[in-house]
Write a structure and sequence with these properties.
Blueprint: E1 2-8, E2 13-18, E3 25-32, E4 39-45, E5 48-54, H1 59-72, E6 82-89, E7 100-101, H2 104-112, H3 121-134, E8 139-143, H4 153-156, H5 162-168, H6 177-191, E9 197-203, E10 207-213, E11 216-220, H7 242-251, H8 255-264, H9 267-272, H10 277-285, H11 289-313, E12 318-322, H12 323-328, H13 330-338, H14 349-353, E13 360-361, E14 370-373, H15 378-391
Parallel strand pairs: 1-6, 6-8, 9-12, 12-14
Antiparallel strand pairs: 1-2, 2-3, 3-4, 4-5, 7-8, 9-10, 10-11, 13-14
Bound molecules: adenosine-5'-diphosphate (ADP).
């Protein structure tokens, strides 16, 4: 049995055919630049990468092209035993605390939530609509926000005027929830205990941190949108909101210009000129002071969140690093953990420096906190949650 996992963006469709039991990604692919003069398609199956360039006018054409690829280069979806499609959806608002079978009502709710995620939900829906037309199996949606529906009100509610906040749905919904849930669950499995106070650091191009007690999220850094919290590849993360009023008044910047500045031209890229951490380290190593300062600001923000979440939880058992930077950047992990030495965190530098795809502890046995590196796998998590919903249908 397999699940086709689809992550549909505004001009892209990422997909994976996953065996939810073994965890194997049988085929992996990506359609990019949909609607532009040339679209690019990459499809990997059986160790072979197939690449195509051709115009694909919309998501429907994109997905049709992908389904033809499954027929021509394989694997045949029928023979691979496809039982469902799992769709990633960014914003589920307060309506979804877990995965849901797509019905007309669920579809309409996702559409109604579009004002909360204008860049994401409409793009997710485009993928859902064309996939439902083309693939006659149950379709399930898995929300990035669902894991954070357990947040206590004191963490989810901003100290914004209650009437305004409630009328416009302004509160902390979080994001990357599928990854935080998957990784915190893996950490529990690895340690062999449920009753843990954990901090999960999902550090990719987007970055977020969550506090998880006994498997339930109690706080997270992303807010109404993925802009809040950590320093990210191109996003500011936390910043005084009055900077917006200030730049609007003194620089005459429009809301759209500010949105672009905060989301796409700031963060590590806005500080160092590059957003790939490998390039930033290279620059810092060759004496670029802005790059070194960008790393310092990045680490400072992480340390600040770890300290505050340990205080919020009243203790800390586990820190889990995940995603592109969290899994691969041993120097960054070392800089963060060295700052926690006064609290009894003891890094094992040799183990930290080793690359690997397995879960591993990078602290010594006598460290006050166990620090783990855990590869995330959002597609597998979506495939498994999809199967959970499908199992309730029969
Ligand atoms: P996303 O899914 O948010 O696009 P990923 O989780 O794939 O992001 O992470 C991408 C980021 O991981 C890249 O921007 C890069 O900075 C970082 N990264 C990948 N490999 C390394 C490495 N070896 N050292 C440092 N950073 C790395």
């Amino acid at each position: 049995m397999t699940v086709l996992v689809i992550n549909s963006g505004s001009s892209s469709i990422k997909y994976q055919l996953v065996d939810p039991e073994s965890g194997e990604a049988i085929a992996v692919g990506l359609v990019e630049q949909i609607g532009e003069s040339t679209s690019r398609v990459k499809h990997t199956y059986d160790g072979e990468k197939h690449e195509y360039e051709q115009r694909l006018a919309d998501h429907g054409e994109g997905l049709r092209f992908v389904l033809d690829l499954f027929d021509s280069v394989g694997p045949s979806l029928a023979e691979a035993g496809i039982v469902a499609v799992g769709h990633r959806v960014v914003q589920g608002g307060d309506n979804f605390n877990g995965p849901a079978l797509i019905t007309e009502d669920v579809r309409d709710l996702i559409e109604e939530l579009a004002p909360l995620a204008p860049l994401h939900n409409p793009a997710n829906l485009r993928g859902i609509d064309v996939a439902r037309e083309l693939l006659d199996v149950p379709h399930v949606v898995v929300f990035d926000t669902a894991f954070f529906q357990t947040l206590p009100e004191e963490a989810a509610r901003y100290a914004l005027n209650r009437e305004v906040a409630d009328r416009y749905g302004v509160r902390r919904y979080g994001a990357h929830g599928t990854s935080h849930q998957y990784v915190s669950h893996k950490a529990s499995e690895w340690i062999g205990r449920e009753d843990l106070k954990q901090i999960v650091l999902h550090l990719g191009n987007g970055a977020s941190v969550s506090a998880v007690v006994n498997g339930e999220a109690v706080d997270t850094s992303m807010g109404l949108t993925p802009l809040e919290g950590l320093v990210m590849g191109t996003r500011t993360g936390d910043i005084d909101p009055a900077v917006i009023f200030h730049l609007s008044r003194v620089a005459g910047m429009s809301i759209d210009e500010l949105d672009d500045l905060f989301n796409k031209k700031s963060g590590v890229k806005g500080l160092a000129g590059e957003n790939d951490m490998r390039a930033v380290w290279d620059m810092a190593d060759s004496g670029d002071e802005n790059a070194r300062e960008a790393l310092d600001i990045y680490v400072h923000r992480l340390v600040k969140y770890i300290g505050s979440y340990a205080a919020v939880m009243g203790g800390l058992d586990v820190i889990a690093f995940t995603a592109g930077i969290g899994e691969n950047d041993d120097r960054l992990r070392a800089e963060v953990l060295e700052r926690l030495a006064p609290f009894g965190v003891k890094i094992d530098p040799e183990v930290n420096a080793v690359r690997g795809d397995n879960i591993r502890a990078i602290t010594t046995a006598d460290s006050s906190v166990t620090v783990l590196v855990i590869p995330t796998n959002e597609e597998l998590a979506i495939a498994r949650q999809t199967m959970d919903v499908v199992a309730t249908l029969s």
